[in-house]
């Protein structure tokens, strides 16, 4: 083990990725596989997409140990079952990436039906909290672990149309930062990424597909003078945060957004 607290070499790490069948989750799985982690389990709702994701990881790294478990991240019983199954497969969960997404295109609050708000908020916020709550005691037992959550720049920058999304993302950021302070004594690190638009992802396709959100993100893309981020940009940071090189880094909200904002 690396002499720094909470920092195992990748070869000793089991990795659990929620939302691992596409986008940042899948790119991160490939990144971890290239670093030679002991094993990877992908969580997602769709078994067909899960099988495709496993194939993609193995195509990139034929020697990788990777599998898929179907789970609904919004269902406490289901996500608990899936996490326990993942732990049994991996032996230990040393790195947790929460990269789930919801089918929500931002819009002005006055256009959002009031009866939809709680459901939108729950799908945005609860999955990473639920899964972290399940995994955290296991990391405490082993006195090490790295948790990486995905939020967005909506948590930092007030943007018309992102009232609900901004509130949800801010919740994930503060959850991550506060948990970092709670868990540091057990050798556990917690960080959160806050990107803006990520090209080539299902979420990007959704929010740029038309309506108010398409105009919103068209403006955002025009401000990304360093280039709109792609999943691999985020995955590189995820892998760094999961590994021993970031052993002293916790409680940080990191934006990779091509220059859209400096929040």
The CATH topology name reads Rossmann fold
| Overall mean pLDDT | 91
* Amino- and carboxy-terminal Cα gap: 36 Å
Q: Give the spatial strand order of the biggest sheet.
A: 3-2-1-4-5-6-7
Structural class, by secondary structure, is: alpha/beta
CATH architecture: 3-Layer(aba) Sandwich
Oligomeric grouping of the chains: single chain
What is the rounded Rg?
17 Å
- Residue windows where pLDDT falls under 50 for at least 5 positions: none
Q: How many domains?
A: 1
- What is the CATH superfamily label? NAD(P)-binding Rossmann-like Domain
Shape: globular
CATH class: Alpha Beta
What share of residues is helical? 40-55%
Q: Bin the strand percentage.
A: 5-15%
Listing every helix as H and every strand as E from the N terminus to the C terminus, the arrangement reads EHEHEHEHEHEHHHE
Strand element count: 7
Give the biggest sheet: 7 strands, parallel
By DSSP (H or I, 4+ residues per run), the number of helices equals 8
């Amino acid at each position: 083990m690396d002499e720094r607290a909470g920092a195992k070499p990748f070869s000793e790490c089991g990795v659990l990725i929620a939302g691992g069948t596409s986008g940042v989750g899948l790119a991160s799985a490939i990144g971890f596989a290239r670093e030679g982690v002991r094993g990877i389990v992908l969580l997602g709702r769709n078994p067909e997409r899960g099988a495709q994701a496993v194939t993609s990881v193995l195509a990139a790294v034929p020697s990788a140990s990777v599998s898929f478990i179907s789970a609904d991240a919004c269902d406490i019983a289901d996500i608990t079952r899936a996490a326990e199954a993942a732990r049994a497969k991996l032996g230990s969960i040393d790195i947790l990436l929460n990269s789930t997404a919801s089918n929500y295109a931002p819009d002005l609050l006055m256009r959002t039906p009031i009866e939809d708000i709680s459901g939108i908020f729950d799908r945005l916020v609860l999955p990473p909290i639920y899964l972290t709550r399940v995994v955290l005691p296991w990391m405490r037992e082993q006195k090490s672990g790295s948790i990486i959550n995905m939020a967005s720049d909506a948590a930092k920058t007030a943007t018309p149309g992102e009232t609900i999304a901004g509130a949800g993302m801010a919740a994930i950021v503060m959850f991550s930062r506060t948990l970092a302070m709670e868990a540091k004594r057990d050798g556990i690190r917690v960080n959160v990424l806050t990107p803006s638009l990520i090209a080539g992802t299902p979420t990007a396709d959704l929010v740029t597909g038309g309506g108010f959100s398409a105009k919103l993100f068209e403006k955002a893309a025009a401000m990304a003078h360093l280039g709109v981020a792609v999943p691999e940009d985020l995955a590189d940071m995820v892998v760094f945060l999961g590994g021993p090189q970031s052993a002293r880094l916790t409680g940080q909200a990191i934006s990779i957004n091509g220059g859209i904002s400096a929040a």
